Every structure is written in C-alpha cells, then in structure tokens.
Amino acid sequence: MLESGCKAVKEGMLEKRSDGLLQLWKKKRCILTEEGLLLIPPKHPPPPQQQQQQQPAEPAAKIKELHFSNMKTVDCVERKGKYVYFTVVMAEGKEIDFRCAQEQGWNAAITLQMVQYKNRQAILAVRSTRQKQQHLAPEPQPAAAAAAASPPSVPRSISNPLFMNLGKDPLVRWDF
C-alpha cells in the first residue's frame, strides 16, 4: 500500500518524453494504482510507506502523480521496433508521451485502470443522485391511508365513451 492508501497494480520502468527543446526520452520508475500513475525518477527512493511519514516531504516533491480524474484518454500512437509509443491526454489538453517495450503492456494497463476508475466514479455519481432524489421525494403513505385519501381510480378501458352508457339505458343497441 502506498501513502495514499491505494495498492500498486503494476510497477516498472517507462520512458517519458521530456518537454524540453530536445525532447529526450527519460526513464521513470512508474507505479500504477487504482487512482492514477505515479512517475518517480529512477534514482529516487520508493514512495514512503504509511509508517515512514515522519521523513521530510522534500524527497516526495520529485514524484509526479497523473490522477485518473484529470486524464482524458490514453492513445496508442504506434508500435515501432521493440517499443510501443502512447500518449496520455490530460483533461486540460496537455499531452504526455511515453514509450515502453511492447511486451510490458503499460498502455493497456493504464487504459484498463482508467476505465475502471471512471466506471467507479460514474456508479458513485448515480448512487449519490438517487440518494438526493429519495431525500427530496415526499414520504410514501401507507397503503390504507393512500387508498382512503385518493378517489377510486377508473380503469382506462371503462372510462372510454363507448362503455359509458353500459347499464344505463337498456334500449341502446350495440351494433358494430
């Protein structure tokens, strides 16, 4: 478990293209969690465990988290040679390019975790909406009180004008 309380789903090395002028590929130690992707410089110590939180927060400043709530898509750009190139598109439009060996399957793992995260969020949103609607809806009346309070309902088929004279006038002929 990481300090955020999320368990690591996948760990390993990824290469990230730098934002600089030369756009060099830099190795990053990555930890994929149920909440997002942690990018750690390769020489950086592992993220602190919960029992080691007394350490100064300065080393953690190099850890970058790409949270799924801020991710839009993961686009697989191409498979070339031994690498798979893919792009993580963030909600604000920023694109982050990665590459890894084809057999590592980082792009698929990130996509799968992102979809699962978004599905969990959608389910929580629906539950929240239903709870709000239940709190706003009037209290249901017991069946006996509801029956006494409301007039008897007439089935639609009987309220049809063809059936309104039934039983009233015995001389009415029903020739169809």
Account of the 3D structure:
Residues 8-117 form the PH domain. Residues 142-151 have a biased composition (Low complexity). Keywords: Cytoplasm. It comes from Ficedula albicollis (Collared flycatcher). With 176 residues, the protein is an alpha+beta fold. It has a domain at 8-125: Roll (PH-domain like), CATH 2.30.29.30. It is 24% helix and 30% strand. It contains three helices and seven strands. Strands 4-3-2-1-7-6-5 form a seven-stranded antiparallel beta sheet, with helices on one face. The model is unreliable at 50-58 (pLDDT under 50).
Q: Which CATH architecture of the domain at 8-125 is right?
A: Roll
The count of β-strands is: 7
Q: Give me the CATH fold name of the domain at 8-125.
A: PH-domain like
User: What is the terminal separation in angstroms?
Assistant: 79 Å
Write the layout of secondary structure elements.
Elements (H helix, E strand, L loop, with lengths): L7 E10 L7 E9 L2 E5 L23 E4 L3 E10 L2 E8 L4 E7 L4 H31 L6 H7 L6 H4 L17
Give the tags:
elongated; 7-stranded antiparallel β-sheet; 176 residues; PH-domain like
Compact description:
The protein has 176 residues and is α+β, with helices and mostly antiparallel strands. The chain contains 3 helices and 7 strands, in the order βββββββααα. It is 24% helix and 30% strand.
